[in-house]
Amino acid sequence: MWPLLQSPFHVATVVLLFLVPNGKAFIRAIYNRNSTSQDFSALPALFGPPLPGKGLAGYLIEAMPANACHPIESPPAPRNSSTAFIALIRRYDCTFGAKVRHAQQAGYRAAIVHNVNSQALVDMTIGTEESQQQIEIPSVFTGEATSKLLRKICHSNEGARVILVPEYYHFAWEEVCRAISILVAVVTGILLIVKYTMGYHIWRKRRNPLREEQGKESSGSTFNRGVKYTECAICLETYEKGDMLKILSCSHAYHGKCIDLWLLTQTRNKTCPLCMQRVTVAAESPDLDIEGCIEEERDEGNQEDEEDGHNRERQ
């Protein structure tokens, strides 16, 4: 069963590896006291460190000057060590590397560079001369419409913040949740099938052990009336050693408790469950023990053999 359970997990892993996009990100704005969020498309820069796997959250502040081609003003003093600020910078007038480096020098934890008069996304690259100057903060590029919406949200909602998230994390999480749901359904179905299949075989083995043994020796247990009994026709349980039986006047036998209950349900005419004849419990056949009946039958058979032997000797 293990290879069968292993297969869905392998398939889901391969699918996720092919579906997860590379080199993309998105900006999530959270406002209205954390009750509302909105996502915007973005592209991470081709330089500097990548965005953290779980995203980078901070308060958005417009750079001064807006294009950040010169050193910009520092953000306000943080309330605590966990407070981060993200600079919103306008495109053009200088290189992307210079803009992000000025944001880093001013104390920002990340930078968002937006397009001008366009919503198109472009890859932010860095020149060979600037590559020697290490950039230690991540940055992303977005469109002008997005920058306007971000300004509006951050200016009109106190406490509003943005989160820069690598899209593969966002996408993978949704796909993982979907894959887990599918796998849970598949595994549950497999386990239910195995459970009921195994349970059925166990039930068959418990139900028919006597019948299997009887099949090897004879077709049934023969009692002193010459009638074969294998199971009670009322409860459908196979007779076992120690079971107490009652034989009706029609020669059909049942568990004593089963036939007693059957006869109690009939107020007038007492009938056999099998042949529906009017019957009574045979007076000469009280509660019978299967093993006792078999022994009794053997004793009677031995007595008959002895009598036949005596008769032959007399002749």
Automatic annotation (TrEMBL):
It is an enzyme of class 2 (transferase). Residues 290-315 are annotated as: Disordered. It is found in: Endomembrane system. It catalyses: S-ubiquitinyl-[E2 ubiquitin-conjugating enzyme]-L-cysteine + [acceptor protein]-L-lysine = [E2 ubiquitin-conjugating enzyme]-L-cysteine + N(6)-ubiquitinyl-[acceptor protein]-L-lysine. One of its GO terms (molecular function) is ubiquitin protein ligase activity. Pathway: Protein modification; protein ubiquitination. Residues 290-308 have a biased composition (Acidic residues). Residues 1-25 form the signal peptide. The chain crosses the membrane at residues 179-198. GO terms for cellular component: cytoplasm; endomembrane system. Keywords: Glycoprotein, Membrane, Metal-binding, Signal, Transferase, Transmembrane, Transmembrane helix, Zinc, Zinc-finger. Its EC number is 2.3.2.27. Residues 232-275 form the RING-type domain. It is a single-pass type I membrane protein. This is RING-type E3 ubiquitin transferase. It comes from Chelydra serpentina.
